[in-house]
Amino acid sequence: MTHFKLFENNEISRMSHVMMSPSRQSNLELAYSLSTYSVIGAFCTEDNVPQCLLHINQELASLGLPVCIEASSPEGANLNAVPVLNAVYELLQIHRRDMCTLEEMEKEQMKKSSSLDLIQMTNSRLKDQLELSIREKSGLYETERQLQLKLKTLQRCLKGEKDEVQKLQSIIASRASQYSHDAKRKEREAAKLKERLSQLLIDRKDKKLAIDVLNNLGRSDGKRSQWRTTKATASHEGEMYKFLLCDYEESQKSLVLENAELKKVLQQMKKEMMHILSPCQPSSRGATADEELAESDEDEKTRDSSRDTLDQSCEHAREQLTNSIRLQWRKLRNHVEKLDNQASQVLHQMESNKDMIPFETHQDEMERMRHEVQQCKEFIHAQQQLLQQQLSTSFDDETAALLYDCYTLEEKERLKEEWRLFEEQKRNFEKERRNFTEAAIRLGREKQAFEEDRAAWFKNHFLNMTPFTNRRRCSSSDGQSSLSIISEPEIRMSVKAHKAKASTYTTFSTPKSSRSTAAPSTTDLYRTLRLIPDCSSSMHSNQVWQESSTNGDEDIRIKSKSRGLHCSDLDIFALGEDDSLT
Amino acid sequence: MNFSELFKQSNQLCKVSPDGKYLATCVQYRLVVRDVSTLQILHLYTCLDQVSHMEWSSDSLFILCAMYKRGLIQVWSLEQPDWHCKIDEGSIGLVSSRWSPDGRHILNTTEFHLRVTVWSLCTKAVSYMKYPKACQKGIDFSKDGGYMALAERRDCKDYVSIFVCEDWHLLRNFETETQDLSGLEWSPNGCVLAVWDSCLEYKVLLYSLDGRLLSTYSAYEWSLGVKCVSWSPSSQFLAIGSYDEKVRILNHITWGKIAQFEHPASIDNTKAEGNFVLSVPELPHPDEICAPPIQIPVVKPDPDRANPKIGVSVLAFSSDSRYLASRNDNMATAVWVWDMQKMSLEAVLEQTAAVRCFQWDPRHPRLALCTGNSKLYLWSPRGCVSVQVPAEGGFQVQSLSWHCSGDFLILLGKDQLCLCYMDAEQEENTSCRHCENV
């Protein structure tokens, strides 16, 4: 109890404001009073009565009680009972009042808290309800939406059906109108028929149909008309079938040609595609795989080419070709796509015009290829036309079959060339032979003429012979003298051409000596002696002969063969040419 | 371009001889034969009645004049003007008449299509063909003149008879798988016969010369079907125009469809693939070339009437088979030109009035068309021209036909005709801008 002495004013006032429940007020009052008794006992002691009194007065004043407690005696610890009792009574009243208020407030508070609980409960319940209803609402919305959709589709279907019905109705209407129109037309026609029939029955004056021609015409093709026989009818059938077959054959031919052309184009495309792909492949990534592909392409190429030569129309080959074309095209397309991607990538990276060029070159390549293909197509087309022209001009199937074979054509060309050469050579030979024969004939003639001349000359000479010259001549008749005389003409006829023995010539006749200068040149002599080869020897010899004939008898004697007893120059000739001309 | 003076004609009967030397015109009941180069009247014949149909024989020596009302045929000779020939069909009447390819027989179709009478001018003999069918095109001769196909109807079934024109021998007679045969046409090479059904069923049948069925083509069911059929001169293509405003092209190897040309009312870039549209307005300034998108005026046909004016009714191939011209009946002011090599639209020629007639030049790829006004329109891949026909009193060009040499055109009006000569340099110096085909 001693520690309560140190209570401050605040703590006391705090303690006096402690709230208590009204039911426990009395107990608490007691307890409080007991505890407060101890506190009050602690608050006021014998010593501090006036201070306490002052303090209590202050408190009473602050509460609004005008009671003022005074001490009964200034130094005693006794107090005036009346104000104290009044104060106490007031305080008790106040306290009671407060208790009541407190009770009421507690009641209020309890009520409020219970109502709050209630409200909270209802609130949570309502929240749950709200959530539930929201969910329901969304579900309903969903179903409504679906139903709307369904409704829309059904409406659409309905509309479609209505349209269909409309269309069918319109069709029916148009058909009905068409039918009725036709029916009306037929009815009108029937009516007309009936009318005409009745008219005819009434009329009875039947106008016979007749033709009135001035004169019969000839048939347009000029032939006489034929009887209709079974042979004619059969021939009509045959002609008709021939006509049809011709048409089918023509169309088949054109289709075959078209097929061949297209196949060739495809082959070329394939080759070009492979060619385009193969050099690019080593540079691209995955080179090994591409190399394998290139190898397989090569194999395919060889296989295809071998197959092509064998059988073009084989379906397997056709399939192979189309498949390989597809494969190549796919590869090419992938390659081009790759290139395009690369190009676009690089374009994005670098903004220079450098990279445009490869694409441009690619485009150019493509253009060039297309141009080439176009050219080839045109060429093929031209060939086709020529071939068709050729086909159309041939009448016989066999010759057509022959002409088809291009090998014989080649050979034919070669043969033609050779024939031409042969003909030319033959002509040349003929010419030469003719010339030779002419030359021979002329030679014969000349020979004859010479013989005659010789005979004449001999006769002349014989008649004109002097005894002196006779001896000389006689002497010259035997071989030895001829030999000795030979020397002279030898010298003369030699290449050195000594003209020293001109005296020998004077014995014959002066014209001869004069002629000596006009004697033929050595080349001519040699030519005629056939010592010098002459390609146009026959021609030249003709000239020589002609010259000789113009120059006179002496020259003839000189050039022609002779067995003369005179100047042995002739003998030399005779010796020389004996074997050749005789 | 030079124009001749106007000459009288009646009934649009004006034909050039097959050899190209003479021009025959009918004026009421007279037949006038002129020389093509000088236009001088060479012969003048008088028929017994107004001529309904006039035709040259294939050798250009005879002219047939048919008077359907009187049931009479008169044949005139050019070499011998005194020669005469009159065929009277009597009470049986006459509905159509034509020459045979040899120029010596005349085939008359009697009224009600009771029979076809074949008159021979060589022997005066008569032969009959029974049960001919009354349809759009029931008789067709092959181009070389060797065979004739005749459509027949017996016991509610369609048949086709093939005759050899030389002696009228019946080669083949076979039933066709059609409901109601509407027409037949030989291919230019003479080996295939195209037969098509009436518009109630889309069916085109292809028969070989010996009567075998080669192929059947049917694009769709129930809607109105084939409206017109045309072979290309090379026999490679068969163009079928139908009521669904489309042209389908069949090829001669598989007889399957290789292309389909549509005639939409609005043409934009994607559909036309960059082709230009030519518009030819009736104004002094030259023809316009418009870029797509283009709207073409459409006239909706009356749905209750039979044979509605809808669908492709006219198809014409150019002489080199390179181009195909088509006309869609509910866009009657436009002529569509298709390129057969590219299988795409080449040009659309739009006029201010409905196109009445168009025809290709027999030699060059040049199209002439007329719309019933006094202008003549020419189109070629290089350019186009519209020429006013210089004639006093207004000359309405109602139909036209080319001379076989392609040197001039015959323009027919209501009761007049005019010749239009082409210049050799016409192609080079066209007055309007050129169509660019991408």
TrEMBL record, chain A:
Residues 300-312 have a biased composition (Basic and acidic residues). Residues 289-299 have a biased composition (Acidic residues). It is found in: Cell junction, Adherens junction; Cytoplasm, Cytoskeleton, Microtubule organizing center, Centrosome, Centriolar satellite. The keyword Cytoplasm applies. InterPro entries: Adhesion_Centrosome_assoc, Afadin/alpha-actinin-bd. It holds the Pfam family ADIP. Its main location: other. The keyword Cell membrane does not apply. Keywords: Cell adhesion, Cell junction, Coiled coil, Cytoplasm, Cytoskeleton. Residues 277-312 are annotated as: Disordered. Residues 151-203 form a coiled coil. Belongs to the ADIP family. This is Synovial sarcoma, X breakpoint 2 interacting protein a.
UniProtKB/TrEMBL annotation, chain B:
Coiled coil: none annotated. Gene3D superfamilies: YVTN repeat-like/Quinoprotein amine dehydrogenase. SUPFAM superfamilies: YVTN repeat-like/Quinoprotein amine dehydrogenase. It comes from the Eukaryota. GO terms for cellular component: microtubule organizing center; MWP complex. Pfam families: WD40. This is WD repeat containing, antisense to TP73. InterPro entries: Centrosome-WD_assoc, Quino_amine_DH_bsu, WD40/YVTN_repeat-like_dom_sf, WD40_rpt. It comes from Nothobranchius furzeri (Turquoise killifish).
